[in-house]
């Protein structure tokens, strides 16, 4: 099933969040937006966290690197990393072409959902992008 | 992730090609006091076009300083690490301006040119970031050379680099003088559709090609003429992003990275750009002493294992001990792996194996001779 980018939540720092119920628990799947990927351009490397890593909202969980620059990835919510898209760093071209499905980066079991309140919906995020672009 | 470059454009200068860049959809960034295109499309695509066809670069931000008068060569002989007196007409030399301690104030190209009306002058091309510093360095020296007229031509002119294996083939048709008759590091004043242009066979990419200096008001026309002439050959405009990855592959130093006021030409590996025995110049004694004592550090090239590039300032380790740091690093689009230049202690500079500390994680690195890339003969 394909993810609808208009139904996702977004962080100011360009991560997208898809919250779903898995085995009775709230799990957030996290990636980076098409806008962010276009801004970064020419991705060359991605550093991923280890499964089990505990994160607070706003913690750095990895980094994505383009030809020119390194950008940290921030967790929009508090939780524990339960799954990591291990193959993604070797297929950054596919992240370019499909950031919202193939391009998922980590899954986080949410321990404190309060961080979700500060995220934007798609319309608000689009507005932010338009203003910064 | 966080937004990368600052988008503040307050008090920034623009080049004569600014409107063209914006029309072409370039991403503009502040660089050395100018708003400059960092890329039009993809840095990697622009890089590859330069290696396979040719790329056009707006390098109008570089400083262009002109010296008229018979004593110009005596003045420049005092300022530069290379001897200027006796340079034949139409030659270009790479050299440095140093302080009394031998610290590098800038690396420059000096040309000796003849105008169509048969007068002669010297042209110094300096880094954009150092232009004011070099002007301030030169100005007090002019008192000793009253017949020299010194003028900053930067804002009156534009500078365009056309670089790549097909650059000469396309450009030879565009000027009154066929520039493919110029040897490497030669320059001439010719004209492009009856407007004057300084053409030199120089560049900063490791490819064959030209650098052109034209009047500011002619810049867009010249740029568009070359783009049109090279369209079928695959010419593309390229920004500062590709310019940096290209010069890194070519092992060329960049001021502020490999070169600065605390590094002398010997440490920088630029002894070839110093002529020490033929005259006195500012910094000569310090450079001679550095040569006699041997440099404490040396510039080396590294290939990194894996895909993660090392960036400037990453510590370089040898057998577990920090021995230096990366001065420039990034992915090499041509070689498909990360490359880095580093300054390391001379005692380990011949070693083969190093490690680079990239934000807390060690990556294995293997020393390689510079340049990383050499164009096919």
From TrEMBL, chain A:
<dbReference type="InterPro" id="IPR033753">
    <property type="entry name" value="GCV_H/Fam206"/>
</dbReference>
<feature type="modified residue" description="N6-lipoyllysine">
    <location>
        <position position="68"/>
    </location>
</feature>
<comment type="similarity">
    <text>Belongs to the GcvH family.</text>
</comment>
<protein>
    <recommendedName>
        <fullName>Glycine cleavage system H protein</fullName>
    </recommendedName>
</protein>
<comment type="function">
    <text>The glycine cleavage system catalyzes the degradation of glycine. The H protein shuttles the methylamine group of glycine from the P protein to the T protein.</text>
</comment>
<dbReference type="InterPro" id="IPR002930">
    <property type="entry name" value="GCV_H"/>
</dbReference>
<dbReference type="Pfam" id="PF01597">
    <property type="entry name" value="GCV_H"/>
</dbReference>
<dbReference type="GO" id="GO:0005960">
    <property type="term" value="C:glycine cleavage complex"/>
</dbReference>
<dbReference type="InterPro" id="IPR011053">
    <property type="entry name" value="Single_hybrid_motif"/>
</dbReference>
<dbReference type="GO" id="GO:0009249">
    <property type="term" value="P:protein lipoylation"/>
</dbReference>
<feature type="domain" description="Lipoyl-binding">
    <location>
        <begin position="27"/>
        <end position="109"/>
    </location>
</feature>
<dbReference type="InterPro" id="IPR003016">
    <property type="entry name" value="2-oxoA_DH_lipoyl-BS"/>
</dbReference>
<dbReference type="GO" id="GO:0005829">
    <property type="term" value="C:cytosol"/>
</dbReference>
<dbReference type="InterPro" id="IPR000089">
    <property type="entry name" value="Biotin_lipoyl"/>
</dbReference>
<dbReference type="InterPro" id="IPR017453">
    <property type="entry name" value="GCV_H_sub"/>
</dbReference>
<keyword id="KW-0450">Lipoyl</keyword>
<comment type="subunit">
    <text>The glycine cleavage system is composed of four proteins: P, T, L and H.</text>
</comment>
<dbReference type="GO" id="GO:0019464">
    <property type="term" value="P:glycine decarboxylation via glycine cleavage system"/>
</dbReference>
TrEMBL record, chain B:
<dbReference type="InterPro" id="IPR027266">
    <property type="entry name" value="TrmE/GcvT-like"/>
</dbReference>
<dbReference type="GO" id="GO:0006546">
    <property type="term" value="P:glycine catabolic process"/>
</dbReference>
<dbReference type="GO" id="GO:0005829">
    <property type="term" value="C:cytosol"/>
</dbReference>
<dbReference type="InterPro" id="IPR006222">
    <property type="entry name" value="GCVT_N"/>
</dbReference>
<dbReference type="InterPro" id="IPR013977">
    <property type="entry name" value="GcvT_C"/>
</dbReference>
<dbReference type="GO" id="GO:0005960">
    <property type="term" value="C:glycine cleavage complex"/>
</dbReference>
<protein>
    <recommendedName>
        <fullName>aminomethyltransferase</fullName>
        <ecNumber>2.1.2.10</ecNumber>
    </recommendedName>
</protein>
<keyword id="KW-0032">Aminotransferase</keyword>
<keyword id="KW-0808">Transferase</keyword>
<dbReference type="InterPro" id="IPR029043">
    <property type="entry name" value="GcvT/YgfZ_C"/>
</dbReference>
<dbReference type="InterPro" id="IPR006223">
    <property type="entry name" value="GcvT"/>
</dbReference>
<dbReference type="Pfam" id="PF01571">
    <property type="entry name" value="GCV_T"/>
</dbReference>
<feature type="domain" description="GCVT N-terminal">
    <location>
        <begin position="18"/>
        <end position="276"/>
    </location>
</feature>
<feature type="binding site">
    <location>
        <position position="211"/>
    </location>
    <ligand>
        <name>substrate</name>
    </ligand>
</feature>
<dbReference type="GO" id="GO:0004047">
    <property type="term" value="F:aminomethyltransferase activity"/>
</dbReference>
<dbReference type="Pfam" id="PF08669">
    <property type="entry name" value="GCV_T_C"/>
</dbReference>
<dbReference type="GO" id="GO:0008483">
    <property type="term" value="F:transaminase activity"/>
</dbReference>
<dbReference type="InterPro" id="IPR028896">
    <property type="entry name" value="GcvT/YgfZ/DmdA"/>
</dbReference>
<comment type="similarity">
    <text>Belongs to the GcvT family.</text>
</comment>
<feature type="domain" description="Aminomethyltransferase C-terminal">
    <location>
        <begin position="298"/>
        <end position="373"/>
    </location>
</feature>
């Amino acid at each position: 099933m394909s993810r609808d980018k208009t139904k996702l939540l977004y962080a100011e720092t360009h991560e997208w969040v898809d919250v779903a119920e898995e085995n009775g628990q709230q799990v957030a799947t996290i990636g980076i937006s098409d806008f962010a990927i276009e801004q970064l351009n020419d991705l060359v490397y991605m550093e991923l966290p280890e499964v089990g890593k505990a994160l607070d909202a706003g913690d750095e969980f990895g980094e994505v690197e383009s030809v020119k620059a390194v950008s940290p990835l921030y967790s929009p919510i508090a939780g524990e990393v339960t799954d990591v898209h291990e193959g993604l760093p070797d297929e950054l071209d596919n992240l370019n072409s499909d950031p919202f499905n193939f391009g998922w980066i980590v899954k986080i079991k949410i321990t404190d959902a309060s961080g979700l309140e500060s995220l934007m919906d798609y319309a608000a995020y689009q507005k932010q992008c338009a203003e910064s672009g | 992730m966080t937004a990368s470059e600052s988008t503040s454009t307050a008090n920034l200068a623009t080049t004569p090609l600014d409107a063209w860049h914006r029309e072409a959809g370039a991403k503009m960034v502040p660089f050395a006091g100018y708003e400059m295109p960092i890329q039009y499309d993809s840095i990697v695509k622009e890089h590859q076009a330069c290696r396979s066809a040719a790329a056009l670069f707006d390098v109008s931000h570089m400083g262009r300083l002109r010296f008229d008068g018979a004593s110009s060569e005596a003045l420049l002989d005092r300022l530069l690490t290379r001897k200027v007196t006796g340079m034949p007409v139409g030659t270009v030399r790479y050299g440095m301006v140093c302080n009394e301690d031998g610290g590098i104030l800038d690396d420059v190209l000096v040309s000796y040119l003849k105008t169509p009306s048969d007068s002669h002058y010297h042209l110094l091309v300096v880094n954009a970031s150092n232009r004011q510093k070099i002007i301030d360095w030169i100005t007090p020296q002019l008192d000793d050379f009253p017949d020299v007229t010194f003028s900053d031509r930067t804002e009156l002119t534009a500078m365009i680099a056309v670089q790549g294996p097909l650059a000469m083939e396309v450009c030879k048709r565009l000027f009154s003088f066929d520039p493919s008759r110029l040897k490497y590091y030669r320059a001439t004043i010719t004209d492009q559709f009856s407007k004057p242009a300084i053409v030199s066979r120089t560049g900063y990419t490791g490819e064959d090609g030209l650098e052109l200096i034209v009047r500011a008001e002619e810049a867009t026309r010249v740029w568009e003429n070359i783009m049109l002439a090279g369209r079928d050959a695959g010419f593309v405009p390229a920004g500062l992003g590709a310019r940096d990855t290209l010069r890194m592959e070519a092992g060329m130093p960049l001021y502020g990275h490999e070169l600065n006021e605390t590094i002398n030409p010997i440490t920088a590996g630029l002894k070839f750009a110093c002529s020490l025995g033929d005259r006195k110049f500012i910094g000569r004694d310090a450079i001679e002493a550095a040569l006699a004592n041997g440099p404490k550090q040396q510039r080396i090239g590294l290939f990194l294992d894996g895909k993660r590039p090392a960036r400037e300032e990453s510590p370089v380790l040898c057998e577990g001990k920090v021995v230096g740091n990366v001065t420039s690093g990034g992915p090499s689009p041509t070689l498909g792996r990360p490359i880095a230049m580093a300054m390391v202690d001379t005692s380990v500079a011949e070693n083969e194996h190093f490690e680079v500390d990239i934000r807390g994680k060690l990556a294995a690195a293997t020393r390689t001779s510079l340049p990383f890339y050499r164009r096919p003969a």
